[in-house]
Amino acid sequence: MMVQYSIIKRNRSICFLFLVQAFLIHIGIQLMIGPIA
Fold this sequence. Notes:
The chain is mainly alpha-helical. Helices cover 95% and strands 0% of the residues. The chain has one helix and no strands. The radius of gyration is 16 Å and the shape is rod-shaped.
């Protein structure tokens, strides 16, 4: 049971990091395109 919980916890943290990375990439693209457009 504890092993399963740790796996779920790890997957959740990986998903969170992926969302943060996608958000930062989105902001970076906005900042790059913003001054041009």
